[in-house]
Design brief:
The complex is a heterotrimer. Helices cover about 75% and strands about 0% of the residues of chain B. Chain B is mainly alpha-helical. Chain C contains eleven helices and 15 strands. In chain C, helix 3 packs across helix 10, helix 4 (about 95-105) runs parallel beside helix 5 and helix 6 crosses helix 7 (about 190-205). Classes of the chains: A mainly alpha, B mainly alpha, C alpha/beta. Chains in contact: A-B, A-C, B-C. The interface between A and B is large, with 40 and 45 residues.
């Protein structure tokens, strides 16, 4: 990868996050670890939606595939955290392939609904197998099982650093992906599917590959959530968790590499701040969305890119 | 219980579900068909209808039937006005871009839900039915009001159809649906048509809620299910096709009633959900649609 | 004069700094002493202000506030005043963990208590364990006593669902019938009822003839009623969420005034709902479990009178200022009792500050019995320090003329079961 200002910017973000490991007060330290994990999920969502134009309302299924593969393997199978993490990533990617093979026969609103339906079926399946999943109540992963290569994911410092390492890999891989020839094909698919077909690309294959990568990210994030925060429950697979990455991405800027992280960060602190001010924090969230879409429809980084920073990937 | 009566009960239940669903979904379908807007806040308009019906039942004195009649007229009007306002203040300024409107209506969803929680409270509140009689069949009893709901829904749907087909307003709406720019060129105030359509869509959800609220009850989180089901119905029916929406509502309502009678309920829901997804995969234009979405 | 203020000479600046330093030192020292003596003890409260638990959350907050007033008027904890910091968790397990974080790390709370919904508990307990902050729940869930959580989590205010359900079985099989059909929501809470009640009924020589699991997304129930076998003598129902009124109304329409089985339910379905609501007439003559009888019973003691007055609940279980505002009376006593148990455990531990958190847990583990009284108005309790779970007496009430009248109170032993975990042997 060329060492240019775009790469430098993202490295600077990572360096800042590393600095925060030492500088941030405990409350924010642990929030940022959580935000990085969710940002991986949002980055995956952005690869499908922001770059390839696939507006899915069912990504919770992919997140859940990672969450439950990792969680159940550790809880019932006694697997190690490293194995569980790998299994979670693969489960996310595999689930995305399976969903994609069917759902990518549709487009637009129908695609939204098909993905929504698959995710709903996944949510109900978790409830149906309550004997293993404890349904909505969920299961708590024992602290002793949450160790990866000697690092205790239940204690703050290793968790932050592992989250940062995985986040860094995800962010740089995302950057490399969108600057690769394949990344340009993805964008071409979003902008004009017919034209890219005429140029010799198979839209189905391209979208399927993008969705699979998106699934790997979502699976990684889900597995991280299970192992780092120790809770696996049906609520995390419900429809809200399909909407969440969409919000993060739109707030930060769809089709920007750092946008999902920025969106996750701002959304978290918006809710946190609003709930301290008023009971009606849902109102604040709702109003923020409306204001955002009215006055900065491309999200924060998207607007910056359109106005000033043309080079922003 | 024997198989025959069992099936009869399932069908009656399915018919009630279908009737209410048809009303709610036709609102969503209208908005999508004419404005090409996917309204995620549609379920909240439904919820507002139910909540306002409860307020009406508290404020209007006399027998429950009077309050119910008032609610039936007043609630859709108020909800429609709120929707029109949302259209003029937000959606219009977004130029009805699909992604932007989805986000905006998610925001609207949060705002309306919070408003209901703050002003109405977190409890489920019952609204008395306008009349209560129970039909005793040889095998089981059934609510007479539920059957009345089916009748009322049919009447309302016929009214919607008549408005769309045989009034000038309907003509203008259809003209706008077919070609917005040409309609504008012919002097149609497209902005006003859109605000009106959005209000009418929300009003239909609200009226469905007023009908259902004596059976269920008003609660600030009740909008989720109708939204999901309406989405399914609209898609299965073929986007924007009102006739398809009605047929799909009947199909979904009845099959939901019947399937969950014969399988483990949650398993039945899983199967039904996957079935809907697969229908869409293999017929993206919907079961009854003709054009590609 | 003014010149000097704007451009101070180096000397005055130094002098000023020295004075500031002295001030700072003087300010810090007394405050530190104060922390030893009279700085308030801060208790964090995870409250379900929004989301599906909001009906409960509102009353839990009121009960906690009332209990706090009583506590502070009686001298607080270890001679120090007590504060409660409430934070909304949206009845969401992810937010729950974040709230534990916020209350502990940002608000500086000594411990956290008050959580009801078991999925929020499951989401939050791991973080409480990592932060090593006591997490005192009011949730009824069996997950704690089954060994699923950790040493920092305790439940001293309310009996868990396994014990509640099991102690119902003898009375139900002896007085209502031996052939039971169960209707329950198809998730963890419902499955606990299914498993523990079925086992207890079988142990009593009864039989569960059908188990009907309703998907939690369901809003209408009539279509499930034909699955109730005709031989059913008792219909056992436990539903939660806003659709419960529909459930009862539709059950009424289905059976009408004709022949119906005996009906026994858990009041969880109708917490915060007026039993005299339109459509609920059908409930007349049916029975309910109640943690604490909503309607003031004829034999109610002084402590219950005191508790009702303090929280602001009238004799019908409604708000003293708004008779239409029905409380979650059968459950919310747990918040009250938990606060006073916290006080006693902190006293026993000689609790001074966060450094004594472990001592606090050990002190609570050493507790065995709570006597009925103003601190424990619901009744006497037995605390099991090994499982971190309290046991108490349950009530069975019958609906008579739109009121709930207690017909039976269980014995303490009815609710006991063998220990499934010993937290005192696990590490902190």
């Amino acid at each position: 990868m060329r060492l240019d200002r775009a790469l430098l910017l993202h490295l600077a973000v990572l360096a800042a996050l590393l600095a925060l490991h030492f500088a941030a007060p405990p409350y924010h330290h642990s929030n940022i670890a959580r935000i990085m994990v969710l940002a991986i999920y949002a980055m995956g969502y952005n690869i499908a939606f922001g770059y390839t134009g696939l507006l899915s309302l069912g990504h919770a299924l992919l997140f859940g595939a990672g969450l439950y593969s990792a969680g159940l393997l550790v809880y019932h199978g006694g697997a190690g955290a490293a194995v569980a993490l790998a299994a979670g990533v693969l489960a996310g990617g595999g689930m995305a392939l399976a969903v994609g093979l069917l759902a990518l026969r549709t487009a637009g609103v129908a695609f939204m609904i098909v993905t929504l339906m698959f995710a709903q079926a996944g949510y109900l399946t978790v409830l149906y197998f309550g004997a293993w999943t404890r349904g909505d109540e969920g299961i708590v992963i024992p602290q002793a099982a949450r160790t990866i290569a000697g690092l205790d994911l239940a204690s703050d410092a290793p968790r932050y650093l592992v989250a940062l390492a995985l986040f860094a890999v995800a962010l740089l891989a995302n950057l490399a992906l969108v600057r690769s020839p394949f990344g340009r094909v993805m964008v071409a698919m979003r902008e004009n599917e017919e034209r890219s077909r005429m140029l010799g690309f198979n839209p189905f294959t391209v979208k399927l590959a993008a969705l699979a990568v998106s699934g790997l990210y979502a699976g990684l994030s889900g597995a991280c959530y299970a192992l780092m925060f120790g809770y696996v429950g049906a609520g995390l697979v419900s429809v809200q968790y399909s909407i969440l990455p969409l919000l993060y991405v739109l707030l930060g800027g769809a089709g920007t590499v750092a946008g999902p992280f920025l969106g996750a960060l701002l959304m978290f602190y918006l809710i946190d701040w609003a709930s301290a001010l008023t009971d009606a924090h849902q109102f604040v969230t709702g109003a923020a969305l409306v204001v955002l879409v009215l006055f900065a429809p491309k999200g924060i980084l998207g607007t910056l890119r359109a106005r000033w920073l043309r080079w922003l990937p | 219980m024997d198989f025959g009566p069992y099936l009869l009960l399932a069908l009656m239940e399915g018919l009630v579900t279908a009737a209410v669903l048809a009303l709610t979904a036709s609102g969503l379908s209208l908005v999508f068909g004419i404005m090409r807007v996917v309204n995620v806040a549609h379920g909240e308009f439904f919820m507002l209808g139910a909540v306002l019906a409860w307020f009406t039942s508290q404020w209007v004195p006399g027998p429950p039937a009077v309050a119910f009649a008032v609610a039936l007229v007043l609630c859709p009007l108020i909800v429609g006005a709120i929707a029109a306002l949302a259209d003029m203040l937000v959606l219009k300024r977004l130029h009805y871009e699909p992604e932007a409107t989805i986000v905006a209506t998610i925001g609207l969803l949060y705002i309306l839900q919070q408003a209901a929680l703050s002003l109405f409270g977190p409890d489920a509140r019952p609204v008395p039915p306008p009349f209560a009689f129970r039909i005793q069949l040889p095998w089981f009893g059934y609510s007479g009001y539920k059957l009345a709901v089916v009748g009322a829904a049919v009447l309302l749907l016929v009214a919607v159809w008549l408005i769309l087909r045989h009034t000038r307003a309907g003509l203008v709406m259809r003209a706008t649906q077919i070609d917005r720019d040409t309609a504008r060129a012919f002097g149609i105030n497209v902005d006003r048509v859109y605000a009106g359509v959005f209000a009418m869509g929300a009003g239909l959800a609200a009226v469905a809620a007023v009908l259902i609220v004596p059976i269920q009850q008003a609660h600030y989180l009740m909008g989720g299910d109708p939204l999901l089901l309406s989405f399914i119905v609209v898609i299965i029916g073929g986007l924007g096709s009102l006739r398809g929406t009605l047929l799909a509502a009947l199909l979904i309502g009845l099959s939901d009633g019947v399937i969950s009678t014969f399988f483990a309920p949650t398993l039945a829901k899983i199967v039904a959900t996957l079935a809907v997804a697969l229908v869409l995969v293999f017929r993206p234009q919907g079961l009854f649609g003709t054009r590609a979405a | 004069m003014t010149d000097r203020l704007i451009t101070p000479s180096r000397r005055t600046l130094l002098k000023g700094m020295a004075a500031g330093g002295t001030l700072l030192a003087a300010g810090v020292a007394p405050r530190f002493v104060q922390a030893q003596s009279s700085a308030p003890i801060k208790l964090g409260f995870q409250v379900h202000r929004t989301g599906i638990g909001a009906s409960y959350g509102r009353w839990y907050e009121r009960t906690a506030t009332a209990a706090l007033k009583v506590l502070n008027e009686a001298g607080g904890i270890n001679g120090r005043p007590v504060e409660i910091v409430f934070e909304d968790d949206g009845t969401d397990p992810k937010r729950g963990a974040e709230v534990v974080e916020k209350l502990t790390a940002q608000a500086g709370c000594d411990l956290i208590f008050g959580t009801l919904f078991s999925h929020v508990v499951a989401g939050s307990a791991p973080r409480a364990g990592e932060l090593k902050v006591p997490y005192v729940i009011c949730s009824e869930g069996h997950q704690l006593a089954s060994g699923g959580l950790n040493r920092w989590t305790l439940q001293p205010g309310i009996t868990d669902v396994k014990s509640q359900v099991q102690s119902m079985a003898p009375w139900v099989t002896q007085n209502l019938g031996r052939k039971v059909t169960m209707i329950f929501p198809d998730y963890a809470f419902g499955h606990d009822h299914r498993d523990y009640f079925s086992a207890a009924v079988t142990a009593q020589g009864g039989e569960v003839v059908a188990q009907i699991a309703i998907p939690p997304t369901e809003t209408t129930f009539t279509r499930y009623f034909p699955q109730i076998p005709a031989e059913t003598e008792v219909l056992y129902h436990v539903m939660v969420g806003p659709a419960v009124l529909t459930f009862v109304k539709e059950l009424g329409e289905f059976y009408g005034s004709g022949d119906r089985p005996q009906i026994f339910g858990f009041i969880d379905s109708l917490e915060a709902v007026d039993i005299a609501s339109p459509g609920l007439e059908f409930l007349d003559g049916t029975h309910f479990w109640e943690g604490f009888p909503r309607y003031r019973q004829a034999d109610a003691g002084e402590s219950e009178t005191f508790y009702r007055a303090a929280v602001g609940v009238d004799d019908n279980g409604a708000s003293a200022t708004d008779p239409a505002d029905i409380s979650t009376y059968a459950h919310m006593f747990s918040v009250w009792e938990t606060l006073f148990t916290i006080r006693d455990a902190m006293a026993a531990a000689g609790y001074q500050g966060p450094a004594d958190r472990q001592k606090f847990v050990e002190a609570m583990e050493a507790m065995t019995e709570f006597a009925e009284g103003n601190d424990h108005p619901q009744g006497p309790k037995v605390f099991n320090g090994k499982t971190h779970q309290v046991f108490g007496l349950q009530s069975i009430s019958k609906v008579e003329g739109g009121r709930l009248v207690r017909v039976h109170r269980t014995a303490m032993e009815d609710g006991f079961y063998p220990d499934e975990v010993d937290y005192t042997t696990t590490s902190f």
